[in-house]
Amino acid sequence: MSEKRQLRLGAFLMTPGHHVAAWRYPDTEASQVLSFSFYKKLAQTAERGKFDMLFLADGYAVSEKFPEAISQTVTVRPEPITLLSALSAVTEHVGLAATVSTTYNEPFHVARKFASLDHLSGGRAAWNVVTSANPAEALNFNKDNHLLHSLRYERAEEFLNVVTGLWDSWEDDAFQYDKENAVFADRSKLHTLNHKGEWFTVRGPLNVARPVQGHPVVIQAGSSEPGKELAARTAEIIFTAWQTLEEAQYFYRDVKGRLAKYGRSHDDLKIMPGVFPIIGRTEEEAREKKAKLEELIPQEAGISLLSSLISFDLSPYPVDGPLPDLPELEQVNGGKSRFTLLKDLAEREGLTIRKLYQRIAGARGHREIVGTPLQIADQLEEWFVNGAADGFNIMPPYLPGGLEDFVDHVVPELQRRGLFRTEYSGTTLRDNLGLKRPAHSATSTVSALSQASV
Amino acid sequence: MSEKRQLRLGAFLMTPGHHVAAWRYPDTEASQVLSFSFYKKLAQTAERGKFDMLFLADGYAVSEKFPEAISQTVTVRPEPITLLSALSAVTEHVGLAATVSTTYNEPFHVARKFASLDHLSGGRAAWNVVTSANPAEALNFNKDNHLLHSLRYERAEEFLNVVTGLWDSWEDDAFQYDKENAVFADRSKLHTLNHKGEWFTVRGPLNVARPVQGHPVVIQAGSSEPGKELAARTAEIIFTAWQTLEEAQYFYRDVKGRLAKYGRSHDDLKIMPGVFPIIGRTEEEAREKKAKLEELIPQEAGISLLSSLISFDLSPYPVDGPLPDLPELEQVNGGKSRFTLLKDLAEREGLTIRKLYQRIAGARGHREIVGTPLQIADQLEEWFVNGAADGFNIMPPYLPGGLEDFVDHVVPELQRRGLFRTEYSGTTLRDNLGLKRPAHSATSTVSALSQASV
């Protein structure tokens, strides 16, 4: 008898909350966005709720396109690997997922940092691979222009190959620690990558042992065509944004259907849409919270957020008018799937710029669920049992309250229904997610030939 | 009445010990080099000993020039910022100094990581700025050749300017958290760097608030001519290697003498030579420990270490013969000052290759002190009171034992003599070191003109 299929939960900690007005919300600890004690409390709350992982987004620029928005929004947060490393010391079970861009980093450093975090945390590291959607980032890295979308994905694919290759520099049992015979490492188990590609030349080997999990868990968020293909080949979790059950089901079938051609099975990739829950003791209380948050959105901050999500500057247009004519998808060099989603939403519902930014100022294109803990559990269950999701990345509107409410009221309901764990079953993130530990490339027949050994 | 001048102590944690044979030494926890619990114990021991800071070296390659040495030496360790972030969560006072190279990194990332660590640790971060001396690192970063020594220093200087500029992106009081009036940040206190230089084009601003310490403490280790000049202009600690009191005094006077032309005072820069202490209850026991360590050095590992320290391959030469003719200093593209130091040492004492590697296999060119806790305290005091050092970076031969002995036996002796603190006096690393907190560039008259404000 197999156990009932379990859903997976991520705690997406955008501080001090996902809603663009979160920092103005009563009780939100807005001044604590750089304080370790704040994050420690959040991490321990998520672990109390048996979440699979903490999830941190990242970006490499303060956008100055909308000067007023700078004063009205939270532009400063800790770098995710630094923060998650600190949190690894005060948690025991919860996974630690950091966003790191392949567009503005070097694979050697990225491989090394995640390998280090995986060792120090006892096998809890995950890498959310992004290609960066904000053109302002280029200007902080000696570049005049943001790399084109298609080139970013080419680079990302090669980047990932180099990183996983470097993680396999040493076989799992390479280290002997044999004091008597002076053998610290068995060098026949050291593999030098010697990668020479289009984007990178990286000799290796890595100066960190193979990670506890073999490879830290690989997460991707892109839902564009190249994003889906890269995910089907390499990702173990997809974090994605869908508004309706039908869209989510379509995406789920589409991506899962691409796995077989890469020799992967249905369970090797978990699809976890984002969910932005506004929780009330009654549905009315939840709706009041939502209205309160919308009321607190500073206008420039709303326009700025919407403009960045659709990669198009809306500031010249009347805020109570419709969206202007937007460029064709081919011209968009930001997040392509988010562009389409928001454009379709505005058209479908005939939203003005203001109505649209109010609509997305919390969930940012992800699914918003407003209601009681029971209603929220119902909606999560609906997607989970109907082939739309393997789990969810939970995006609390404000912190710490929004996470605490989820842990104290929604999680117990999911547990009652037998949909979610009551205790952590494994020791690594991979164990808890039900993902296989990858065999070392030199010991698996598939890719042994591509490895040059010393 | 001013307090007696206090010496500063760093705990240089090269795991599982500085001696190249440390991992073979009895009781050394060689298998723990990637375990958090091991580092936690070391960090808490250093904090119990009131050390100013933990200090971690770093490198970006496994050298494969000496194949046997790979199996005989410790080639894998955690990345320092990842590790120190984790340690920040289990310590309260001790500073956290990470080595990061300016040759293979981007200033935006480096500024951000140290700013993050400084916030998360409550003002305990320090950056040991190095330019990398190992040519093998280039091959892991898309380069065929290591950058020339002089160019590395040019790049380092500009890199440091960019990083300190980014740390000043926000004034100290830029963040208001004013929920009522929707002012998270006062944008008149945001400064965009707009750096365009020879090596870097970085717009800024940084997406982290100004660090708790203003700027994390800047450490340098270079003792070459360009190294000294860069340090005199920008460093707050110099970590340096000298064998004799006279050399150390000369260096101390030389560097301190260069401060005035940069508008800096004598106390703005602390000079901390490395010290490798082998501690015994008797002098005889200490000498036996040293002999035991020398006996445990695998020959290839010894030759490999020496070759890398002098940037010259000694493997073709008879190990019991003299050093071969070495290149002129101008041709050396590794660590120039270390090259000179070792060459002079071999000549002065007529050492064979084997004798020289035995001699440096622990201290690696730093000062070795073998004796009782009293003898070690005497020798530290001698340099400290005679204008050769403001403190010391302590390099335990093996871990955890070598650090525990220092904390339990040498520190109390230094405290008895009134040379070292019995309690931490400040809350930040800067406070404890007696270093001024740098004023923001926009509020100090000196450099306000070089800042473009938004």
TrEMBL record, chains A, B:
It holds the Pfam family Bac_luciferase. One of its GO terms (molecular function) is nitrilotriacetate monooxygenase activity. It comes from the Bacteria. The keyword Transferase does not apply. The keyword Oxidoreductase applies. SUPFAM superfamilies: Bacterial luciferase-like. CDD domains: Nitrilotriacetate_monoxgenase. It is an enzyme of class 1 (oxidoreductase). Belongs to the NtaA/SnaA/DszA monooxygenase family. This is Nitrilotriacetate monooxygenase component A. It comes from Paenibacillus plantiphilus.
